[in-house]
Amino acid sequence: MRQPIVGGNWKMNTNRASGTELASAVASSSASxxxxxxxxxxxxxxxTIADTLKGSxxxxxxxxxxxxxxGAFTGEVSCAMLKDCGVSWALTGHSERRHVIxxxxxxxxxxxxxxxxxxxxxxxxxGEKLDQREAGxxxxxxxxxxxxxxxxxxxxxxxxxxxxxxxxxxxxxxxxASPADAQAAHAxxxxxxxxxYGVDHAEAMRIQYGGSVTASNARxxxxxxxxxxxxxxxxxxxxxxxxxxxxxxxP
Length: 251
Ligand code: 13P
Prior knowledge:
Layout: E1 5-9, H1 16-29, E2 36-40, H2 46-53, E3 58-62, H3 79-84, E4 89-92, H4 95-101, H5 105-117, E5 121-126, H6 130-134, H7 138-149, E6 161-165, H8 179-197, H9 199-204, E7 206-210, H10 218-222, E8 230-232, H11 239-248
Parallel strand pairs: 1-2, 1-8, 2-3, 3-4, 4-5, 5-6, 6-7, 7-8
The site of 1,3-dihydroxyacetonephosphate has 14 residues, from β8.
């Protein structure tokens, strides 16, 4: 049985006061959930929110990491610095970093390996754009991003890796993938994992869905056999909605 995992990716939202308030609401509403819960606040609030989450079962994540250890990399934040701030999870390959900032598969892979080497757990995000879906390339894009993102990641590290399938056209648009379409993509991702790492690892790995998950569609999405929770953007900023989504992942 895979433990579901729900992430709240706050993106570039909140401030010190509202972020602290949100984290504290998530800590109380998640207290007895079966799902693992991770929040990803903006960098400047990590230390403050680490304090807020102390003693709760909600874990702290970073929205991005540097692939470099330390040195002259202006503006970058290393995995060691993040760990030092109480972070235990990192996102890599988020579609906004791939398609807005311009990160390549090679950089996503380097960040994934740096985070794992530093002892962080990683949510590796993959997913197709609308034109790719319309051209029938969903599975191909997911497979390419998955193989590239995990290149050189040893089987022993896989228990610290979660895959997030986030179709780009569904992110922040209110257009959610249908449960059947999402399940089909997840099943293919698991099939690729099977061919990369064997059946036992593939069955044990968690694959989250992300893209316009709401309090009202979460339960049906999460009840699909290959969907192990969700990575939530907009709805993670609304404490009551996020609490319902966590509950939907904790049957
Ligand atoms: P939305 O839930 O706002 O569509 O964002 C999803 C996402 O990008 C989570 O990482």
